[in-house]
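Table 4 source record.
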Amino acid sequence: AEYMGDVTDSMNGRNKKKLNCGDDWQISAVIQTFPPNLDFLCCQEVFDLSAATMLKNALHKVFEHIIYDVGIWRWNSNRMMYNSGLLFASRHPIQEAEFRYFAQSGAADRVASKGLLMAKVIMGECNGCSIVGYVSSTHLQAVEKGTRSIRISQLDSILEWTAEFIESTRSSNDIVAFDVLC
């Protein structure tokens, strides 16, 4: 079954793990170095759920809308071990989001649910039209012997899936400002 993970729109006191003083200081120091006009943050390798939750809680001070812990959980795909490791944070509302799993993987990547996370964000409004943007984030197959064809297949899938996502989520009143891949 596909799992979209946690989409957080507001901080509501759900800190399950108390940060110790050292962790809180380190995370705060990193967040304070963000450029003040940073609209989006795409992270990869955020596999550990407790670390992802700490990161999400800290990022929430800057980014109101966060998607993390996405992936699929099946024995024959990722041995039910790891999510995709993708985290997407946005200052702007997320109108639509979708995760697609890369069916091909090799070596150590077989235990991760690697794929493509796509989001449609609302940037504003102009003359009754919505100004939107599309942000996609991925983590391709690791570079290992014999995996070149897997990465090529994944890149082909990204082109196909982003086109399908835009086609299925774009309305006639949308003005698309950007379409980026992280």
